[in-house]
Amino acid sequence: MLRLGACLGVHVHIIHPAGFAFSAKAIRRSALDYLEHAEFTEHASWDQFRDWQLESGRRLVLLTTRAASSSYDAGYTPGDILLMGRESAGVPDAVTDAADLRVRIPMRQAMRSLNVAVAASLVLGEALRQTGHFEALT
Known about the structure:
6 helices, four-stranded parallel β-sheet, alpha/beta, Alpha/beta knot, single chain
């Protein structure tokens, strides 16, 4: 996720407890030489993140396999926060309830889900395309 954020110029927010190892060593190993280009903020808990999100006035868009709306039918706005949960369990019901918009990636019926980073890439790409973010990168 940090590499994705670095390459596309998107700030990443990590909400603890994370569903993956998140330490200085793990960050250096996974982000490689992209770390110096990545912008990220850690939030100690969902409540801390939620307070920040509400104060910022930004819309919370949850990627979930349980959503009825396609991520490609959704309209994204600058400042939207795309939230992903754990690959194995998603997010708690309280987090789902807090989302302003819930979207899913259309997939073949027999498949359960994509890797969380792949899913994030697909939806983030669409959101950035819709909001004109890519024009600023070229």
